[in-house]
């Protein structure tokens, strides 16, 4: 297996630390509003990653967080907490907002048929772990205090700029105007924020006396949360793969590395996978352009979660993609063709005897192993379908579902002998050009929840949606 690794800037052969078990961490969403379709692309790409690892025989131990506190409007720990802002805008309490949008995210995660992480941590459930991590950093001399929090002194971590190839000089020059005067270095960041008098922040915890002398309430910084969850789950060793969006490289992941490696002395992760962004009609997703589409918007236009999943896996995680509804319609058609083809496995009687496809003799997994080239894998499958001389077996469709999670087996039902008989009668009626009868039988099937289509391969059926 090969993967594009941000750490090395090239496509590397995947060599796991343990030959069998692979440790993966995925930065999860900040649950302050509905996630837009751009946000979900990441989780779809990483689903293909997890599926490919599994198909190569690895047991994947994947942890993901839900950020429900401390992610500020600017990633550099400035501005309002996104969660508090979400609460202010919706008129709900911040805890209600976290629960509502956290649940909404996980519902969509399930509808996309994404393999669930082994464990999902809410940031607010890990406050003690955050404080332990800050303590460990303090003990090693990496922290200092300002009036609004406990900060990480990035000058104490000599390789700070390496991961993202940062030009700290340039950063210093560019930040002069807004530079927080209490910070020692422009790249320093808050590990723990202190809530000042008069400041509104509903999520708050006591700051322990060994970290802050006076009585003060506070909350963790976003980078601290991920570093602490990784440490809690995987200990101080190196993990195999860490995933996120390209926007995480210069700040969030750079800071996670600074926190974790300062304590452990070893590399945080061997492989860093970052997905690129999607644009909509060639433009950045933004509120002012009104192009923030959610799955509700897609459903209103009759597109399912799996239609969108198909659209995403037609591309590559490292490429910027432009989303157009025409493109989504093409992905929907592709998925429909696949389903029709999948249903052929039940209808040898009407489709005629064809060769059976039992296993991946075509290089589908090989394409996925090549830096998760799902686009190539899909075109191989299109090739098989267009040959028209073979039908898939249940095992082969199961393999395709293992690769992509498009529910081909589930949505092409093996219907009862009674319904199969109606289909047979209908095929005969069509052969005899008795279209009145064939239409009547179609209605009969519809009443039982089955749609029938007539194709070059004969009748094909699926559940009526
Ligand atoms: P947010 O919760 O707003 O911080 O967004 C969560 C993550 O979604 C970001 O950190 C990005 O990695 C990802 N993201 C945001 N916009 C896009 C986009 N247009 N395309 C792909 N990913 C995106
Ligand atoms: Zn993270």
Q: Which percent range describes the beta-strand content?
A: 15-25%
Q: What is the molecular shape?
A: elongated
Please tell me the total number of domains. Answer: 3
Work out the radius of gyration: 26 Å
Helix content: 40-55%
Return the CATH architecture of the largest domain: 3-Layer(aba) Sandwich
Major β-sheet annotation: 5 strands, parallel
Distance between the termini: 38 Å
SSE map:
Blueprint: E1 2-5, E2 10-13, E3 21-26, H1 37-55, E4 59-66, E5 72-74, E6 78-81, H2 82-90, H3 94-111, E7 119-122, H4 127-139, E8 143-146, E9 149-152, H5 168-174, E10 189-194, E11 205-206, E12 217-220, H6 222-234, E13 239-245, H7 249-264, E14 269-275, E15 278-280, H8 295-300, H9 305-313, E16 321-323, H10 325-343, H11 348-351, E17 355-357, H12 364-369, H13 374-387, E18 390-392, H14 394-404, H15 408-411, H16 417-431, H17 435-447, E19 450-455, E20 458-463
Parallel strand pairs: 3-4, 3-13, 4-7, 13-14, 15-16, 17-18
Antiparallel strand pairs: 1-2, 5-6, 8-9, 9-10, 10-12, 11-12, 19-20
The structure holds adenosine monophosphate and zinc ion (ZN).
Describe the structure.
Helix 7 (249-264) links the parallel strand 13 and strand 14 (269-275). The chain is an alpha/beta fold and 465 residues long. It is elongated and about 90 Å long. The model has no long low-confidence stretch (mean pLDDT 93). It folds into 3 domains: 2-275, HUPs (Rossmann fold, 3-Layer(aba) Sandwich), CATH 3.40.50; 295-411, no CATH class; 417-463, no CATH class. It is built from 17 helices and 20 strands. 42% of the residues lie in helices and 20% in strands. The protein has helices spanning 37-55, 82-90, 94-111, 127-139, 168-174, 222-234, 249-264, 295-300, 305-313, 325-343, 348-351, 364-369, 374-387, 394-404, 408-411, 417-431, 435-447, and strands at 2-5, 10-13, 21-26, 59-66, 72-74, 78-81, 119-122, 143-146, 149-152, 189-194, 205-206, 217-220, 239-245, 269-275, 278-280, 321-323, 355-357, 390-392, 450-455, 458-463. The longest helix is centred in the N-terminal third of the chain and has 19 residues, at 37-55. The chain has a 5-stranded parallel β-sheet, with helices on both faces. The protein binds adenosine monophosphate and zinc ion. Zinc ion (ZN) binds at residues 27, 226, 252, 256. Zinc ion binds next to helix 7.
């Amino acid at each position: 297996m090969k993967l594009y690794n941000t750490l090395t800037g090239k496509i590397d052969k995947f060599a796991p630390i343990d030959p069998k078990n692979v440790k993966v961490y995925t930065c999860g969403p900040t649950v302050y509003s509905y996630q837009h379709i751009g946000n979900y692309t990441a989780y779809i790409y990483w689903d293909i990653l997890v599926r490919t690892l599994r198909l190569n025989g690895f047991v994947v131990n994947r942890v993901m967080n839900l950020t429900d506190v401390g992610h500020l409007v600017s990633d550099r720990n400035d501005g309002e907490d996104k969660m508090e802002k979400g609460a202010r805008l919706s008129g709900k309490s911040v805890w209600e907002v976290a629960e509502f949008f956290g649940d909404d995210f996980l519902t969509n995660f399930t509808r996309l048929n994404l393999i669930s992480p082994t464990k999902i941590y809410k940031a607010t459930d890990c406050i003690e772990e955050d404080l332990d991590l800050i303590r460990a950093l303090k003990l090693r001399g990496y922290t200092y205090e300002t009036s609004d929090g406990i900060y990480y002194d990035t000058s104490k971590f000599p390789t700070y700029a390496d991961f993202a190839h940062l030009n700290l000089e340039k950063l210093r020059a560019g930040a002069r105007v807004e530079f927080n005067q209490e910070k020692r270095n422009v790249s320093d960041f808050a590990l723990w924020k202190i809530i000042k008098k008069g400041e509104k922040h509903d999520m708050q915890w006591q700051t322990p006396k060994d970290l802050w002398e006076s009585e003060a309430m506070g909350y963790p910084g976003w980078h601290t949360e991920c570093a602490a969850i990784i440490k809690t789950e995987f200990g101080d060793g190196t993990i195999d793969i860490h995933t996120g969006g390209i926007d995480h490289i210069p700040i969030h992941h750079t800071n996670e590395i600074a926190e974790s490696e300062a304590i452990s002395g070893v590399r945080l992760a061997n492989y860093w996978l970052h997905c690129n962004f999607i644009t909509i009609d060639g433009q950045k997703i933004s509120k002012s352009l009104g192009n923030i589409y959610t799955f509700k918007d897609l459903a209103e236009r009759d597109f399912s979660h799996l239609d969108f999943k198909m659209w995403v896996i037609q591309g590559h995680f490292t490429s910027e993609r432009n989303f157009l509804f025409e493109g989504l319609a093409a992905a929907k058609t592709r998925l429909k063709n696949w389903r029709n083809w999948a249903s052929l496995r039940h209808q040898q009687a009407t489709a005629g005897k064809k060769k059976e496809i039992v296993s991946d003799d075509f290089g589908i997994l090989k394409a996925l192993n090549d830096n998760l080239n799902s686009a190539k894998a899909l075109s191989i499958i299109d090739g098989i379908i267009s040959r028209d001389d073979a039908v898939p077996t249940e095992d082969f469709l199961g393999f395709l579902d293992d690769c992509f999670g498009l529910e081909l087996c589930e949505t092409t039902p093996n219907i009862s002998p009674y319904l199969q008989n109606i289909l047979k009668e209908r095929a005969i009626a069509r052969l005899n050009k008795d279209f009145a009868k064939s239409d009547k039988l179609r209605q009969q099937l519809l009443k039982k929840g089955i749609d029938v289509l007539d194709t070059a391969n004969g009748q094909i059926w699926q559940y009526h949606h």
